[in-house]
């Protein structure tokens, strides 16, 4: 990183908008956090569908909504297209999907763990999502009705902000060269 503050790309794939809104909230909290302000951090949120290039940034938060246990294609394509750049930067992953209380499904998306290992991510956090029937396609509506999935907006903005603040603190520590302990770092 150079003398200016770290530039952070926050990019996520979304089908119905709710994960884009989580990415925007993460970017805002990163920039506005005490740790972020102390190092002049600036975070930009961009849809993964716009294929942002991570190599213009010092660190990356990459995420996706989860459908049928998997990340969306736009996020997976970013991983494939920019594996080396993502591996070379501090990277955090986020997934958004589980609905209801307690969150369902409880399982992690099956590909995010693989991506985290492959890219050397510093963490992967799963956040609750939003299921708004008015935004779904006919097929999706039929599926969630058949599964009796709970409908509503279960996004936890306080948890999103707290996670972003922890990421900003970790980035500030990396910048200062201090030893870094991450709450949701992957083993190995
Ligand atoms: C057809 C369908 C399948 C889904 N499958 C999963 C799933 O396997 N795991 C999960 O955690 N959430 C699942 N969800 C919930 C979505 O991930 C959740 O609604 C999310 O917030 C949508 O994000 P988006 O608005 O950014 O597209 C599913 C939703 C739909 C409509």
Explain this structure to me?
The chain is an alpha/beta fold and 188 residues long. The protein has one domain: Flavodoxin domain (Rossmann fold, 3-Layer(aba) Sandwich). 39% of the residues lie in helices and 21% in strands. The chain has helices at 18-32, 34-38, 73-81, 83-87, 110-119, 138-146, 157-176; strands at 7-13, 42-47, 59-67, 70-71, 91-96, 123-127, 130-131, 152-153. A hairpin with a 2-residue loop joins strand 3 and strand 4 (70-71). The two termini are 25 Å apart. The mean pLDDT is 92. Residues 10-149 form the Flavodoxin domain.
Which helices and strands occur, and which strands form pairs?
Layout: E1 7-13, H1 18-32, H2 34-38, E2 42-47, E3 59-67, E4 70-71, H3 73-81, H4 83-87, E5 91-96, H5 110-119, E6 123-127, E7 130-131, H6 138-146, E8 152-153, H7 157-176
Parallel strand pairs: 1-2, 1-3, 3-5, 5-6
Antiparallel strand pairs: 3-4, 7-8
Flavin mononucleotide (FMN) binds next to helix 1, strand 3, strand 7 and helix 6.
């Amino acid at each position: 990183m150079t003398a200016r503050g770290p530039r952070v790309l926050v990019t996520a794939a979304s089908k119905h908008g709710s994960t884009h809104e989580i990415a925007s909230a993460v970017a805002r909290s990163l920039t506005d956090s005490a740790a972020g302000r102390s190092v002049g951090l600036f975070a930009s949120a961009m849809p993964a569908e716009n294929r942002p290039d991570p190599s213009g940034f010092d660190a990356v938060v990459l995420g996706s909504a989860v459908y049928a246990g998997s990340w969306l294609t736009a996020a997976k394509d970013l991983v494939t297209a920019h594996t080396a750049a993502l591996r070379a930067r501090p990277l955090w992953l986020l997934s958004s999907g589980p609905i209801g209380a307690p969150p369902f499904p409880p399982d992690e998306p099956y590909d995010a763990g693989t991506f985290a290992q492959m890219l050397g991510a510093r963490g992967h956090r799963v956040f609750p999502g939003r299921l708004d029937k008015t935004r779904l396609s006919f097929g999706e509506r039929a599926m969630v009705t058949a599964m009796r999935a709970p409908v509503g907006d279960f996004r936890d903005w306080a948890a999103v902000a707290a996670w972003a603040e922890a990421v900003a603190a970790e980035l500030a520590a990396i910048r200062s060269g201090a030893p870094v302990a991450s709450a949701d770092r992957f083993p190995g």
